[in-house]
Specification:
alpha/beta, Nucleotidyltransferase, domain 5, seven-stranded mixed beta sheet, six-stranded mixed beta sheet, 23 strands, globular, ATPase_NBD, FGGY_N, transferase
Length: 535
């Protein structure tokens, strides 16, 4: 689309805004009616460990959103010579799970508790036993119940409990709602009725330690919507909150908010049965849309849904690329110390390319990229750890390959349950995320690790905010066709893809690595217990 045509859509309010609050960046994307990106922007932030809780300041949520919107709006004015004053629709996405608790006066009762916290083990175990359904520590209901078990004072004042994307949408629209994919990380979902499991709500409410409170669990959770529904419209207060300059008009359609898992499925066109996708970043997760139920309960497999409510088996890991980023930062500092100027992108490319020259088993080197605890491997407190023996082959290629191997290791352990025990059939597995910005090597390592073909789509680089914008466009249609058909027929008409299949030597090498990795997990656990955090 040329500048003149784009300007007409911007001026007439036909564009759509997608915002995603990710773990390291708040990203905004503006698209036209052909789902093409007209402008994008971002704001960098980082979670903080305060009093043993991983959190983000709630004020920074709005600082980040407003900064990203202001920069996007300025980009629009500079590129298309017209101001962004109205939107056809918009949608909010964010990292899933966690705990935002408010009282009847809309006051935040405790700091935001993110998905990264491993502080609800007792609650998660008890609820899993009560429901006969896996409740991960990250889920909102686990946080609610753990707060009850801890006898925290704020629990008596609960009036509304939700997730980050739902909270932002509430402030923009006045509606206490969330999308079904996000809701499936709050409380177990009935995929046929498209709401929370009523039998589980009743079981929870009947617990003696819960009955003492005046609130009812069903009343304090956000209402569940599905893709194609509308979560109200942008209010005057919401418009000023998003754009303090006052230029943005109210009235835009708002889509049901979704978690980053849901927008990842949309961005990779992976919402039909027997499709799947993998998103990698600070954390990582795989999503397999099921064509039949799993045979049994697995504590390492989350049962969630697509944005339209179909059941999905999810493998979620808390740690992925953070340790790689730290090592790249160290290498860049070294380069600067010896007077070499190199961009961060070029440095990633250099190190990734070097990894392609490694031994298949990474020379016997082992790495644990745990900045936080990891549920799948039963690690309560993370400590990044690099291990080698006197016979390990220590060189740059092997060292960096073991960083990539470690980033995918917990994901492989979880995926092996689906592929080897449950025999889940997936016709296509599409990957997205920054690790695939350097072509081939990250994609090939993942294919070898999981021993399945991995596909990269050209549009996958747009990521979650683009997927959220697409969902907002879908909300404009009020779901006249299924989400799967909408994506196939309207959005992904001519997808550009590249697929890499597993390499036999790489598969064998990764299996050798993962064997050593599992054997060394007690060392990682001990490091978490004995090496204290720096004050």
């Amino acid at each position: 689309m040329n500048i003149s045509e784009a300007a007409k859509q911007i001026k007439s309010g036909q564009t759509t805004l997608g915002i995603e609050l990710g773990s390291t960046r708040i990203k905004a994307v503006l698209i036209n009616d052909q789902y093409e990106v007209l402008s994008s922007s971002s704001y960098t932030w980082e979670n903080q460990l305060k009093d043993g809780i991983w959190t983000y300041p709630i004020d920074q949520v709005w600082e980040g959103i407003q900064t990203a919107y202001r920069e996007l709006s300025a980009n629009v004015s500079g590129t298309y010579h017209t101001s962004l004053t109205k939107l056809g629709s918009l949608g909010i996405s964010a990292m899933m799970h966690g705990y935002l608790a408010f009282d009847k006066n809309n006051k935040l009762l405790v700091p935001f508790r993110t998905w990264r916290n491993n502080i609800t083990e007792e609650a998660a175990d008890k609820l899993t036993e009560l429901f006969g359904f896996n409740i991960p520590q990250r889920w909102t209901i686990a946080h609610i119940y753990q707060s009850i078990l801890n006898k925290e004072e704020h629990v008596n004042q609960l009036d509304f409990v939700t997730t980050l994307d739902s909270y932002v949408t509430w402030k923009l629209s006045g509606q206490k709602v969330t999308g079904i994919g996000d809701a499936s990380g709050i409380f177990p979902i009935d995929s046929e009725k498209h709401t929370y499991r009523q039998d589980f709500l009743e079981k929870f409410a009947a617990l003696p330690e819960v009955k003492q409170y005046s609130w009812h669990i069903e009343k304090i959770l956000p209402k569940v919507l599905v893709a194609g529904d509308q979560a109200g419209t942008l209010t005057e207060e919401g418009a000023k909150l998003l754009d303090p300059s006052g230029k943005l008009q109210a009235g835009s359609i708002i889509a049901p908010p979704e978690g980053d898992a849901g927008t990842g499925m949309v961005a990779t066109n992976s919402v039909r049965e027997r499709t799947g996708n993998i998103s990698v970043g600070t954390s990582a997760f795989s999503m397999n849309v099921l064509d039949k139920p799993l045979k049994k309960l697995h504590r390492d497999i989350d049962m969630v849904t697509t944005p339209s409510g179909e059941p999905v088996a999810m493998v979620h890991i808390n740690n992925c690329s953070s340790d790689i980023n730290a090592w790249v930062g160290l290498f860049k500092e070294f380069a600067q110390a010896i007077g070499v100027k190199i961009s961060t992108n070029d440095l990633y490319g250099t190190l990734f390319d070097r990894a392609a020259r490694s031994d298949p088993d990474a020379g016997g080197l082992i790495n644990y990229s745990y900045l936080s605890g990891e549920n799948i491997t039963k690690i309560k407190a993370g400590r990044p750890l690099f291990v080698r023996t006197q016979n390990s082959k220590m060189n740059l290629a092997n060292f960096f390959l073991t960083q990539l191997y470690a980033a995918f290791a917990p994901l492989k352990i979880g995926m092996d349950i689906l592929l080897k025990e449950e025999h889940v059939q997936t016709d296509v597995m599409i990957a997205q995320g920054g690790l695939f910005g350097t072509p081939v090597i990250g994609q090939q390592v993942l294919a070898n690790a999981l021993n399945i073909p991995i596909t990269i789509m050209s549009t996958a680089s747009e990521g979650g905010p683009w997927g959220m914008a697409v969902l907002a466009k879908y909300a404009e249609t009020k779901g006249q066709k299924s989400l799967a058909d909408f994506l196939d027929e309207d959005v992904f008409k001519k997808p550009e893809t590249m697929t890499l299949t597993p390499e036999p030597d790489g598969v064998k090498g990764y299996e050798e690595f993962i064997k050593r990795y599992k054997a060394g997990l007690p060392v990682e656990a001990l490091a978490g217990e004995d090496v204290e955090e720096r004050n």
